[in-house]
Write a structure and sequence with these properties.
This protein is 35% helix and 16% strand. With 272 residues, it is α/β, with parallel strands linked by helices. The strands form three sheets. Strands 1, 4, 5, 7, 9, 10 and 11 form a seven-stranded mixed sheet that branches. Strands 2-3 form a two-stranded antiparallel sheet. A two-stranded parallel ribbon has the order 6-8. The protein binds zinc ion. Zinc ion binds next to helix 5.
Length: 272
């Protein structure tokens, strides 16, 4: 009887261990599946009148094709940051205009709210209001198009160039905000000024992976600038670019923060 009791005890213990292992294993599989899912984030593009993507949409892309519409140019920018920076960490941006039904499947083209400085399409950093006015116009255009006040995704504005009070281009090629991703926005210079062999705006650099947009999207997902890693995506001095896909590193903490914040964005979907 005693032997039977010990046997029973051993069997129960083994059974408990087995059940625990199954549960732990399931938990492990579940967490891993969650980790491996891709978060799809809508982007509300608007292009400002005067930016090359609007005035002369003809641009050779890094995939060997020529983009000749505003939409295809801006789609390629998202593809570049998806392929090089964001898909490897389970984030995928897509342009919201793909959700529209034809013939209205266009990205809103909006007026330059301040044409007093330099060329049309520029944003003057001396006018603090201009960026906000562009975002407001863009949001209004999307509200009209989608018939909703509850706009999904991140607003991204394609401008001509950032300029100073004299209308001359400056070493700023993008702006991105915020630590709270629910109110995030991005403004970027047209990639005709930052991509290989076409930079006639400032002679700044070659940006084959559209690191500028990638960096600003990092801000839109709640990351701050860093100063410790020159190869980091959020390094505060992007002028070191040499045309190779370098300088796009994200550490574990940044990746975790991006993925957590991404889920706060209206319309973001977590699917495999
Ligand atoms: Zn920055």
């Amino acid at each position: 009887m005693k032997m039977m009791g010990i046997k029973k005890q051993i069997t129960t213990t083994l059974l408990s261990i087995f059940v625990l292992c199954v549960i732990l294993n399931l938990c492990f599989i579940f967490t891993n599946a969650e980790k491996n899912k891709t978060i799809h984030i809508p982007v509300r593009w608007c292009a400002i009148i005067g930016s090359p993507a609007v005035t002369s949409p003809h641009f050779p892309n890094p995939y060997g094709k020529i983009d000749n519409t505003t939409e295809s140019i801006l789609d390629t920018l998202l593809q570049m940051i998806n392929d090089n920076i964001y898909n490897p960490i389970g984030i995928s941006f897509y342009s919201l205009h793909h959700n529209l039904s034809k013939p209205n499947d266009r990205i809103p083209i909006i007026q330059d709210p301040n044409t007093g400085v330099g060329k049309v399409g520029n944003q003057s950093i001396s006018n603090q209001m201009e960026g906000g006015e562009m975002i407001e116009s863009c949001d209004n255009a999307w509200k009209d198009t989608l018939h909703t006040e509850n706009l999904p995704g991140i607003v991204v504005i394609n401008i001509r160039l950032f300029v100073n009070a004299n209308g001359n281009s400056i070493d700023t090629f993008g702006e991105g905000c915020c630590l709270d991703p629910r109110i995030s926005f991005v403004i970027v210079s047209d990639n005709q000024f930052t991509s290989a062999n076409t930079g006639n705006g400032s002679g700044w650099h070659i940006d084959k992976v559209d690191k500028v947009l990638g960096h600003e999207m990092g801000h839109a997902l709640g990351l701050s600038d860093t100063s410790n890693n020159p190869n980091g995506l959020m390094y505060n001095n992007l002028k070191r670019d040499d045309g190779t896909p370098s300088g796009i590193e994200l550490d574990e903490q940044q990746i975790a923060k991006i993925r957590m914040n991404a889920l706060l964005i209206n319309g973001a979907i977590n699917i495999s």
